[in-house]
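Hi D.,

Good news: the full-assembly prediction came through. Inputs first.
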Amino acid sequence: MSENYSEQAKAVDQRVKTLAGAAPKVMGAYGQLAGAVMTEAGSLDSKTKELMAMAISVSIRCEDCIVYHTQAAIKYGASEAEFVESLAVAVELGGGPSVVYSAKALQAFRQMVA
Amino acid sequence: MSENYSEQAKAVDQRVKTLAGAAPKVMGAYGQLAGAVMTEAGSLDSKTKELMAMAISVSIRCEDCIVYHTQAAIKYGASEAEFVESLAVAVELGGGPSVVYSAKALQAFRQMVA
Amino acid sequence: MSENYSEQAKAVDQRVKTLAGAAPKVMGAYGQLAGAVMTEAGSLDSKTKELMAMAISVSIRCEDCIVYHTQAAIKYGASEAEFVESLAVAVELGGGPSVVYSAKALQAFRQMVA
Amino acid sequence: MSENYSEQAKAVDQRVKTLAGAAPKVMGAYGQLAGAVMTEAGSLDSKTKELMAMAISVSIRCEDCIVYHTQAAIKYGASEAEFVESLAVAVELGGGPSVVYSAKALQAFRQMVA
Amino acid sequence: MSENYSEQAKAVDQRVKTLAGAAPKVMGAYGQLAGAVMTEAGSLDSKTKELMAMAISVSIRCEDCIVYHTQAAIKYGASEAEFVESLAVAVELGGGPSVVYSAKALQAFRQMVA
Amino acid sequence: MSENYSEQAKAVDQRVKTLAGAAPKVMGAYGQLAGAVMTEAGSLDSKTKELMAMAISVSIRCEDCIVYHTQAAIKYGASEAEFVESLAVAVELGGGPSVVYSAKALQAFRQMVA
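Then the structure:
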């Protein structure tokens, strides 16, 4: 097994911090946007929103996004059953490509909860 | 206002039925897959899964998919607040393109619940 | 039924001709590329290549592309069975979004062969 | 010719305003982000940035985005030559699908400058 | 040369098996779907369908999919000429991004047939 | 820091050369297309076009494309400020996924100008 998703998550954070240093206005505004998503209305909890973000990440085949939102979903208490069901939605909406990216996401989930 | 999303939902259903007649094995299997997504484990309810499917549809800019899963989310009792928060996740994950498709999705939601 | 895919095919051709008038070097080179695809090696026939192009068009949800390559596949003699099997590959590789775009493609095919 | 891109631009604006009413925090933050993009550093002018946004819109096949950013590029003084060269970059990066969406973008440009 | 595509193919298989263990209903249904694609009607042979799946994989930039369907195309007897012509269709439909992913696909093909 | 984008750029070039050897007609035509993009009309300079190509590459999440067009933008004299502003446009048009790919692009830029 060659992938280490916790390491990858750290590398993503580091690179995004560097980008924020280079583009403070834009990244500051993006941070506000991401924060607003969590607080708008509040009918869905943060765990559900992060599972949704993770399922979108699988659907668009963005590995760094998968790693980021998997970590966040775990932080908000997502169980493996909830995580896998979110992957299932992505598979219905994406077929084979979502299968292979869901497989990566599950591997990342299990590494990160371990 | 030119769009009529309820009409579009019917046209989608009609076309997919025609496809199912032409490719019964593949479409039968796809139907099994879609059904399995709803029943796998069961930690997330159908409403949440359909909101997730709708948010993915916005993220990948599939208008017929938006129409289909908006209708399904309404059927499972999604409120406008829950619907809008799901759109917000798509906007965080997709920027401007998700804004314009979320705007279509909200228009579809309001037409369909009316 | 509101769609008229033969009309859409004409509108695509017309718009692309206008673009070619505005960007003759680039569009001339693109025409060379499209021509080369048909003549490179020659182990696959034109019908198969156009069915492949149509299946890709479904997979990336490009309606004008679907219309264009459906017309071309018909021109090279594709049967409905071959067309539907190409759609099936797109469904395996794309799930629900490929289902709804395949449904459009089949409608276009039937209109155009009629 | 069936498309009226100026009308479409108005419909996009209207729908996005409705979305902003439903999700004021998220859409307010998105507005801040869009504004920040225009003012970050300032080494590229607004016309160039809008042409870039339009070329991205073609590349991802987002018609409402094309309409929106074509209108903005015109507002900032983009010439047809500059517009067409931006489309050419999208064609290099996207092949046939970018050809058919570039053809739509050029039609929109000509309608809107008329 | 750093990539080892045969190793990657094994890792994909392993991860997908793990996913199938976690989501047996959904993955069982997906397996039925993939099987049905191969047997629906039967006007196109398996080799052609796998080349089509590979060309779609290039077009959507899914590396694990490329690896998977390249291996399958080889299994069904695809020659390098047929493989390269399928890549050519992807290049026509995808421009530069399909060039760089086709280049990876060809590298994978040559490693796997060796 | 594990990524070495200059090495990756060389690997891309090497693989594309191999592909060109296998598909000389198609790749020759693609080369003509890429060349024509740079010379069509000439209202936008090469640096701007390469920054545009790089922003598109981020938007479609094509890492090899990012590496290629980052190198080209540097060759045509793009400054870091111009590069970062192009990334900002991609972030407006792509949200979180464009953030993480922009972060990679900036890392590649800094490695390559060093």
